[in-house]
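thread: overnight batch results

M.L. [08:02]
morning all. the overnight job finished for the chain we discussed friday. pasting input first so we're all looking at the same thing
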Amino acid sequence: MADDQAPAQAALLPFEGAALQALTLDDMMVLAVDLLADGAANAGSPLRKPVLATVALDGAPAARTVILRNFDETERVLELFTDARSAKVAELERELRAAMLFYDPRRDVQLRLTGRAVPLTGAAAAAAWAAAGLPSRRAYLAVAAPGTPSPAPTSGLPAEVEGIIPAPERLEEGRANFAVIRFAFDEADLVVLSRSGHRRARIRWRADGVAAEWLVP
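M.L. [08:03]
and the structure it wrote out:
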């Protein structure tokens, strides 16, 4: 088993020396996609929990950690689940422009994406709700919106569902509070950090094709 795991582990090492020097723009494009695919497919990946940045209602920047649920490489769309009552949903309903930040400490690579994030609720979020696991659904039973002040520490959940996963029909009551955010990106900024000298590339997707260029890190 150790021999089988060796190539996979080697692939997750930081880029140094010859590996860094060999990087091409095509490699950087592939790496960006691989990072997103890893985050969507592997619950234990550090890429599973990126940062989503939006424009707050007062115009200030707002950022928070989210969980990546799905990645559609063809459409360049990432999916996130959230409470429909959360501040980020209100922010995105006013301003769709958003950014996402990923960091892989294993390879010392940072990926920033910019694009537009659309919150979907109700029937538009039905497929995502069906894909959500029962523990995830329980979060939407919270009695108040995320960020609501509380006189004491609280999970926000009703007392009867604390510490348990209730029956599916009880979980269904939270569906009205469920939203899926579909983040479609058109630009990626990828930085490979290395003691040998960093590398940075920008990738842009346009109607006439994909363009990539090296940037000073």
